[in-house]
Amino acid sequence: MVDLGAPRRGALGFILATVALDATGLGILIPVMPQLIRELGQGGLQHAVIVGGWLTALFAVMQFGASPVLGSLSDQFGRRPVLLSSLSAYGLSYVLMGLAPTLGWLFAAQCLTGLFSATSGTAYAYVTDVSAAEDRPRRFGMIGASFGLGLVIGPVLGGLLISYGTRVPFFVAAGLSLTNVLFGLLVLPESLAKEHRRPFHWGRAHPVGAFTELRRHVGSARLILGVLIIQVVLQTLPAVWPYYTMHKLHWTPQIVGYSLGVYGLSNILVQSVLTGRIARRLGSLRAAEVGFLLVAAGYCGYAFGTSTAFIFICIPLTVMGFITQPSLVTLMSSKIGRQAQGALQGVVASAGSLSAMVTPLVMSNLFSLFARPQRPWYFPGAPFLLAAALAVTGSIVVLRGAHEKP
Asked: Taking the mean position of all CA atoms in its chain, how far away is CA 386?
């Protein structure tokens, strides 16, 4: 295990800064991308929405296939080169977007971003390498909080930068990534000792092979399935939240923005403060169960709530679901050797990509089906009720899987 004493304390700070800046760079583009798509496509907002959806889907597909490969590469060559290479590719992709003369350039840049979207997974693997088992939930929570902080700052910064030109935010995002590469070259030591590395093998690098390999190590597909379930549950909210609250509660865009601000800040608090404490007090398995059940309770509140005040009260319950994934990853990481930690994080990232492909499609169509007042089955909260049922199912799946033997 790498010594993170005084000379090396910059390493953990770099990891947290990397995740925060990565999320900030992505967040900067959220308010800017529709305008750039409209400029390049010479169409209206409805056309931009369709193109934006395809760009998001392309990122998810590329990430789904590439994450286990990058994770396995980090198991052979170490975390440092994979992390710095990914950051460099991110910076290059932002430059391509900023210079894009056609929509084709945007799609090419998005391919590059998806192929090298290993910063989060490699960051988790790095922290696993340098942390004792009892410290992992807290540090995993810090990573999640750093990502949440970036997503809070990024859109605000993007909204300010666009006043200087549509292309300016892309070059700022590129500057953040490339500056972080230079910082990493100075302060980031390698975390995976050579004796703990393993050769790259294509048979276990693609998503199916990586899943099969990890199933043998972890002892149960149910734990990995639990990660996928909590990803689907948590991504239900961004998929339908603006439409649901505007439809049922007649919220204005301003109130929607305030609610998402509360959600983001609550997320930071939970992951930076509560995740580690709850895991130390209850253990990783029980912490995961608590997260599943509390997010289920919050989503039931969304589904049946009829007032703005009640919905805001349910937000902290919902955010407690972010305890679950760090706890599950801690549980799985304790069951495998250091040489497979990168593969584990690659599978976790692929689970996130798969849920990103499926959840918006399923939940938005479910909302559309049940939000028609003239139909006898009118119930606009159906997506949240389904997500609550999935969370309860996930708690049962994980509880059974945790007791299975390899």
From this structure: 21
